[in-house]
Amino acid sequence: MDPRGIPPEVWEAICRQCGRCCTEKIVVDGRITLTKTPCRFLDTATRTCVAYPDRFRAEPGCTSVPEGLFTMIFPEDCPYIRGEKTYTPPVG
Question: Is 17 left (phi over 0), alpha (psi -120 to 50) or beta?
Answer without folding.
Answer: left
